[in-house]
Design goal:
N-(1-d-carboxylethyl)-l-norvaline Dehydrogenase, domain 2; two-stranded antiparallel sheet
Amino acid sequence: MGNKATVIGSGSWGTSIATLLAINNVSVSIYCRNSNIADEINNTRKNTSYFANLTLPDGIYATGNLSEALNHSDIVYLVVPTKFIRSFILSKITNWRNACGPDTVLVNCTKGLLLEPTQRTDDWLAQTLPACTLLHLSGPNLAAEIMAGLPAAAVVCGESAAAHRVQQQLLSERFRVYTGSDLIGVEVSGFYKNIMAIAAGLLTELGLGHNARAALITRGLAEMSRLTAHFGGDPEGLAGLAGLGDLIVTCSSEMSRNFQVGMRLGRGQSLEQIQAEMTQIAEGIQASRALHEWPADHGSDDWPDLPIAGEVFAILHEGADPRLALARLMTRPARSETGAS
């Protein structure tokens, strides 16, 4: 279909991807669940729900018709919050299966973990839309900075020829894109770093210092490595953009929704209050619960030790005192750093 692309989802990250494509002279069809957003994009070149003062580039056409969006291109960027992926795709499964054939490249841009039952998004998408070639795009990409034109980088993982096609669509002087092959490592990094970002926001709000944050990032990376290996991915790849890169930015920036959740927990707000007041979804909240429930759902007798993630779950979903959680982590039995938990 030539130099065309479809973006499914018109939130902050979906709008950012559409913008990156359009500035590369790619013709973009962006699907908007909210028809008001579609009308606003087409009539004013703005998406004020997410970027009030920014004008979108030409070349982006918004539509509330999923079939129209999907039929625009054979490269489809899926940018839908994880909690809605199953219901959204299954409710329109005929549209998806009619449009997604052997030539379709489906780029999963989500950073979450499915619940009820627990499952990785890439696994579910591969099972549900098996005709597509599935890729995963991830990296340290704060949407507000992307839209401000600041430089950033990402990695797209999966089948080589398809990954290179996506790389060429997105690559520009402001957005550097690398290719990779480890779908599992990139996906695990994407949801795990959100859990760690909640912990980082909490540490920051409690005034526990830069040493504590550095320890969190490095020990969080160790946990991420163990989980990646458990799922069959390559832990060595976590030193890249989707692993360490995204972990650093989400554990350091107040622009991160998950970091904001942690800060608000540190101020004494309840999870219910935080979620009620947030206008966008912090994927780490659901990922934390899904990770906790995974061993019971899948009978994982060899489930790796994930102490930080376990304490984040306890704080989020069981009302644990953050300072007691920290004390439990700090008084764990002494051990070697290599392979330690």
